[in-house]
Design goal:
about 80 residues, alpha+beta, Structural Genomics Hypothetical 15.5 Kd Protein In mrcA-pckA Intergenic Region, Chain A, 7 strands, globular, RNA-binding, RNA-binding protein, RNA binding, S4_RNA-bd_sf
Length: about 80
């Protein structure tokens, strides 16, 4: 079983490349570009090759067996 981190975002959506950095799944934007282009990232169980894909609350991102779910901030 894979542990999943809940990662709150400030706005209604966030781009995949930004979320990978926010969730600490990658170290830099350059890493995000390469990692996504190589097809190593999935969103909601589908391989995603668009770094600019918009993510919303409830979306699940997986990279190399590490998972993070987009959430809304706690009030």
């Amino acid at each position: 079983m894979t542990l999943m981190d809940d990662v709150p975002i400030r706005d209604d959506s966030i781009r995949l490349g930004q979320f990978l950095k926010l969730a600490n799944l990658i170290d830099s934007g350059a890493d995000a570009k390469v990692t996504v282009a190589e097809g190593r990232v999935s969103v909601n169980d589908e391989i995603e090759t668009r770094r600019g894909r918009q993510l919303h609350a409830g979306d699940v991102v997986v990279l190399d067996g590490r998972s993070a779910r987009v959430t809304r901030p706690s009030l």
